[in-house]
Amino acid sequence: MLNPYVEELRSIYTEYANEGIAHQQKAYLKNLFEHFGIKSPVRRTVSKHLLTREALPTKEELAEIIHELWNQDQREFHHFGLDLCAKYKRNIAETDIDLYEWMVTHKSWWDTVDFIAVNLMGPYFKAHPEYIDTKIKEWIDSGNLWLQRCTLIFQLKYKDQTNTERLSHCIHHLKDTKEFFLNKAIGWALREYGKTNPTWVIQFCNTTKLQSLSQREALRLINQ
């Protein structure tokens, strides 16, 4: 039996389901997930009342509800779970990283992983910097490409607070991979930091042998 909160969400999404859009969305994500066929702006509009202060579950209920959302087949449930987690960023608990890791490693694809890394793990590590180095080591050593991708992009919004030593460390550990999602993330992280410190990025690219995809993405804006 579904949690009433999740049950209400299912009722809403069922009402707005569109088979034609669902087919397109499923194809876009390589047929990995089912969809109701609700585009993101509509999805957020029809379910926004469930994210109001009055409707939000307690923080103590969050992990259970996220697990239940993730257990549903349709991707809209997972995207709602991301928005739900983001509502608690001002109340970050030490143990929240366990939930974020679980989300990254279950029903994994870039559309959820990138949000978790940048918008959940990023703020988490600002609140609990004492765990950064331990988690970076764990994730790089894990062999899980999605956790490895998180080490590269969790600082994406840090701008001048970016720890370049950590960024460099992660890139050097992963730069020889042939994995598209890691090489793309290396380039993305460098390109984003290049908006703040292009000199550092240029120097790093000139002194580090990167895969061509990473190099190209890193310098794309700088070379314009």
Description:
Helix 4 packs antiparallel against helix 5 (75-86), helix 5 packs parallel to helix 7 and helix 8 (132-142) runs antiparallel to helix 9 (145-153). Helix content is 65%, strand content 0%. The longest helix is centred in the middle third of the chain and has 18 residues, at 110-127. The protein has helices spanning 4-15, 19-28, 40-47, 59-70, 75-86, 96-105, 110-127, 132-142, 145-153, 164-174, 180-194, 198-207, 212-219. The chain is an all-alpha fold and 224 residues long. The mean pLDDT is 97. It is globular.
Secondary structure blueprint with pairings:
Blueprint: H1 4-15, H2 19-28, H3 40-47, H4 59-70, H5 75-86, H6 96-105, H7 110-127, H8 132-142, H9 145-153, H10 164-174, H11 180-194, H12 198-207, H13 212-219
